[in-house]
């Protein structure tokens, strides 16, 4: 089994857990509150800006011209998606670039961003790429799962996790090529490096679950602070 096949196989329990999460079920059933949706939207835009830094690192440390061109294409797509996202202004969520730039990064988002950013210092595509590819893989798999569910037909639920862009999918799509690059790099790496790369992939899958959970429960530094300072130890995390 190649390293990427091992990653995907071992990530199956995480995928199932993500599918079952009440936030994902809430997308299917249209039962999420405007506050839950807004929290997710704000945190996720900030998360995707952080991904720009990770993709930039992949461009820097790519080991072939083909890799660098692929990562460059992915960066362009990321920036286009962010531009379009900022242009969309649902009534429930007026926003602009400047205010989103000042959105506080809440605890789980910070943990996930730092988990990804920490791989940059390895200067190694094999270590950096899995931290980023895992989230993309998981969203694609969740999109496939949602396709087979009877889901509410109203926005914003209808488009949630519906991957509009075909560039991600199929044998020449980004995710397939990312896995091929992981396998290509794994051949040059030690067993320990391969295990580390796999652990990074699985940790991203785990943090995806916590990203839904934080959105569902509205986990913030403020409510963490008041829970700590009032001595509550129960329901938040
Ligand atoms: C928590 C979280 N994890 C991963 C992604 C990344 N992501 C998933 S699908 C996709 C491309 C199409 O939107 C991107 C960039 C995200 N946005 N939020």
TrEMBL record:
<dbReference type="Pfam" id="PF03070">
    <property type="entry name" value="TENA_THI-4"/>
</dbReference>
<comment type="pathway">
    <text>Cofactor biosynthesis; thiamine diphosphate biosynthesis.</text>
</comment>
<comment type="similarity">
    <text>Belongs to the TenA family.</text>
</comment>
<dbReference type="GO" id="GO:0009229">
    <property type="term" value="P:thiamine diphosphate biosynthetic process"/>
</dbReference>
<dbReference type="GO" id="GO:0005829">
    <property type="term" value="C:cytosol"/>
</dbReference>
<feature type="domain" description="Thiaminase-2/PQQC">
    <location>
        <begin position="20"/>
        <end position="217"/>
    </location>
</feature>
<protein>
    <recommendedName>
        <fullName>Aminopyrimidine aminohydrolase</fullName>
        <ecNumber>3.5.99.2</ecNumber>
    </recommendedName>
</protein>
<dbReference type="InterPro" id="IPR050967">
    <property type="entry name" value="Thiamine_Salvage_TenA"/>
</dbReference>
<dbReference type="GO" id="GO:0050334">
    <property type="term" value="F:thiaminase activity"/>
</dbReference>
<comment type="subunit">
    <text>Homotetramer.</text>
</comment>
<dbReference type="InterPro" id="IPR016084">
    <property type="entry name" value="Haem_Oase-like_multi-hlx"/>
</dbReference>
<dbReference type="GO" id="GO:0009228">
    <property type="term" value="P:thiamine biosynthetic process"/>
</dbReference>
<keyword id="KW-0784">Thiamine biosynthesis</keyword>
<dbReference type="InterPro" id="IPR004305">
    <property type="entry name" value="Thiaminase-2/PQQC"/>
</dbReference>
